[in-house]
Write a structure and sequence with these properties.
59% of the residues lie in helices and 13% in strands. 29% of the residues are buried. The longest helix has 31 residues. The chain is of the alpha+beta class. The chain starts with a helix and ends with a helix. A hairpin with a 2-residue loop joins strand 2 and strand 3. Helix 5 runs antiparallel to helix 7 and helix 6 runs antiparallel to helix 7. The strands form 2 sheets. The protein has a 4-stranded antiparallel beta sheet with strand order 5-6-4-7, covered by helices on one side. Strands 1-3-2 form a 3-stranded antiparallel beta sheet. It is built from 12 helices and 7 strands. The chain is globular. Among the domains are: 66 residues, 2-Layer Sandwich (Alpha-Beta Plaits); 96 residues, no CATH class.
Length: 293
């Protein structure tokens, strides 16, 4: 059984490493983490250089940028003779909202306060209904039944963003609530959320970057702006989905030895140590490349 568990962990770790090497994932991270201090716009030449430093070839970067443009995430825009891409307004708003989930230490809520989303979308708009369900799930909500979804109260802003961006507010009601009867909340929570799957994601993240953590702590790695950019961008790309998969439940409803605590400490170790250096490297590259096509 131990060998099977080790094989499963190794397999999931490999999937994680493949995911954080994808150009789209890395570009999303670069825009979310670094571009807003530059006005939300970056020259294509700088993006190509930054992604080369992480090991992604130019054609793959250009293809990914085109997909983001088609999806309305990025807008093609030239400045001072440089071709580049700017964040769309909706993408900027999503990043601004997401900072509270991804880059801030979340303390488990001290009370059982919940936000409920109740919706009824006509059958003729079932595609919209599907997208609402999918988006609510991606920000950490769980389905209670049918058109009733639940999350800790702290996810209200995420729910509002989803509802408003899809234009379905006329079909939705939002409530704040408490659970008063009849089963225990830990039992209900374990039914609504797949806690085992969330725990595995945290374990995979911790396993993937354990050696890197040890190398930094033992000073085996020289901490330059370039190295900080490479390592922090990879760590952040791996971390980004986790705070959305984890809704931030009260500690009393989580299993003992919850791996999210250990993984969170690891991420913020890198965030505190490398984040500013990585940002400076991006600023330097963009400044040097501005004015180039």
């Amino acid at each position: 059984m131990t060998a099977l568990r080790d094989d499963a962990l190794s397999g999931r770790k490999e999937v994680l490493l493949q995911r954080i090497a994808r150009p789209q994932s890395l570009i999303f991270t670069i825009y979310g983490a670094y571009s807003r201090s530059l006005g939300g716009w970056m020259p294509v030449s700088a993006l190509l250089e930054l992604l080369r430093e992480i090991g992604v070839e130019d054609p793959a970067v250009r293809s990914a940028l085109s997909r983001f443009k088609r999806r309305g995430v990025l807008i093609s825009e030239s400045r001072d003779g440089s071709a580049g891409y700017a964040l769309s307004e909706s993408a900027r708003r999503a990043f601004d909202t997401g900072d509270a989930r991804v880059l801030e230490r979340r303390e488990p809520p001290s009370s059982d306060r919940w936000v409920l989303i109740a919706f009824s979308i006509p059958e003729k708009s079932r595609d919209l209904r599907y997208r609402l369900r999918s988006r609510l799930s991606r920000v950490g909500f769980a389905q209670v039944t049918g058109g009733l979804w639940i999350a800790p109260e702290g996810l209200e802003a995420d729910a509002r963003l989803v509802i408003e961006s899809l234009g379905v507010s006329q079909h939705v009601d939002v409530f704040r609530s408490e659970h008063i009867a009849f089963r225990s909340m830990p039992d209900a929570v374990s039914e609504w959320w797949d806690l085992e799957s969330i725990a595995h994601e945290y374990q995979d993240f911790f396993s993937a970057f354990t050696n890197l953590t040890e190398d930094y702590k033992s000073a085996k790695i020289q901490m330059t702006p370039l190295q900080a950019f490479i390592d922090y961008t990879r760590v952040l790309t791996a971390w980004r989905p986790l705070p959305y998969q984890d809704p931030g439940l009260p500690a009393a409803h989580l299993p003992k030895d919850w791996p999210g605590i250990q993984a969170t400490e690891m991420f913020f170790y890198f965030y505190d140590m490398l984040g500013s250096l990585a940002q400076q490297h991006v600023i330097d590259v963009c400044s040097a490349r501005n004015g180039q096509s």
